[in-house]
Design brief:
Elements (H helix, E strand, L loop, with lengths): L2 E22 L2 E15 L4 E6 L12 H16 L3 E3 L3 H8 L4 H19 L3 H5 L9 E4 L4 H13 L4 E5 L5 H10 L2 H4 L2 E5 L22 E3 L8 H5 L8 E3 L7 H6 L3 E6 L1 H4 L2 H13 L3 E4 L6 H11 L44 H6 L1
Parallel strand pairs: 5-6, 6-7, 7-8, 8-9, 9-10, 10-11
Antiparallel strand pairs: 1-2, 1-4, 2-3
Helix pairs in contact: 1-3, 2-3
């Protein structure tokens, strides 16, 4: 069964506060606005999903407030009291709201969870035929060396598999120094960097500092509007390049760039699970790797990412962390990892349990 009928979708806006402000090249984030959806089927089964739109228009123009209005005024009235197929609903809704991928994804991914609940099977089982362990990751914002060292110690204590550092041209030297002096490549299986488009023609040479380090990849070093710089990067560093923001302008162009070795997969940014599964097939045809990225999701949103991560064979661990970034931990679905840094209890019904209901 991959079709459902919904009799209602209710919306609830929440504002989660970061325990520590999180800084990237796109700015500093202190609060995380989210819209939680409560989807109820025609047989009174209820699941919850999350609209993960940000309020950083430098990253993506669809804000949380805009996504809420699109859901309320345009999308929800079109999906109630009729048969919905999880394999086609994203394309159908994107025709109605072509610039509202976050809003569309929140309905589409919730619909997949509804099918899982009604079928009494784990969500991951609907998405693929694998059931793999999921290693943990942890993303560190732009910060001081002292703060980075504290975060590194915390990550090592929890056997995190991948550390990813947000960086800018101004902080690259500090991060290179930390990686070297702290022997991070010996303490963690994977080390990655994320520049969030912050390098350009005047700073590209700085990337040669990476050549002595076994960095897994550097994410989006240049502006999505300057693809020509990606052709030049091999003159300065051999570190693999993974693209994120570039996918928002042209996925086919991003996949055709020879220096691009992989892409960041964010289902909520793509319009849901089915567009993500389609992009994975396209990436494989182009011989590109992929890695699941995050958008400061709550524990509910992480659950949707983990369900997809279970069925993907990837070279690099995802960005998904067992730690909550928010003060409101009692309103955030908890995730834990084993002594070896893999996520526990991946078959749980995170989309309708008590912590998730507390968000609404």
């Amino acid at each position: 069964m991959k079709e459902i009928s919904l009799k209602s979708i209710s919306l609830c806006q929440v504002n989660l506060h970061f325990q520590t402000p999180f800084q990237t090249a796109h700015g500093i984030v202190r609060k995380r606005p989210l819209t939680i959806l409560k989807l109820t089927s025609d047989c009174n089964t209820t699941v919850y999903s999350e609209c993960s739109a940000l309020n950083q228009t430098s990253y993506h123009p669809e804000t949380n407030a805009a996504a809420y209005q699109t859901l309320y005024q345009t999308l929800i009235p079109k999906v109630l009291n009729r048969s919905l197929s999880v394999q086609t609903i994203s394309n159908e809704l994107l025709k109605l709201a072509p610039h509202s991928h976050f809003a569309v994804a929140s309905i589409e991914m919730g619909a997949w969870a509804m099918v899982a609940e009604l079928s009494n099977v784990p969500l991951s089982q609907l998405l693929g035929d694998k059931n793999q362990e999921v290693p943990s990751g942890w993303v560190l914002g732009v910060s001081s060396k002292e703060a980075m060292r504290d975060a590194i110690t915390h990550a090592e204590r929890h056997q995190i598999h991948k550390l990813k550092f947000k960086l800018t041209p101004e902080t690259l030297s500090d991060i290179v120094d930390i990686v070297k002096t702290e022997n991070l490549c010996e303490r963690f299986p994977f080390i990655a960097l994320d520049a969030n488009e912050s390098f350009d023609e005047t700073t590209i040479e700085q990337l040669s500092q990476l050549n002595d380090l076994p960095i897994s990849y550097i994410e989006q070093p240049f502006s999505r509007f300057k693809p020509q710089l990606l052709q030049d990067i091999s003159h300065f560093t051999h570190t693999p390049v993974v693209l994120d923001e570039s996918l928002q302008t042209s996925r086919s162009d991003a996949l055709s760039i020879s220096s691009c070795k992989g892409i960041v997969l964010k289902p909520s940014l793509l319009g849901g699970y089915q567009p993500s599964l389609d992009l994975i097939k396209e990436a494989k045809r182009s011989n590109k790797q992929f890695v699941i990225g995050g958008l400061y999701e709550s524990g509910l949103g992480k659950g949707y990412l983990l369900s997809l991560a279970q069925v993907l064979e990837t070279q690099w661990p995802s960005d998904i962390s067992p730690f909550s970034r928010f003060d409101e931990t009692k309103k955030d679905h908890p995730w834990t990892t084993s002594d070896h840094g893999y996520f526990n209890n991946l078959s749980q019904r995170f989309y309708c349990d008590e912590p998730t209901r507390c968000l609404f």
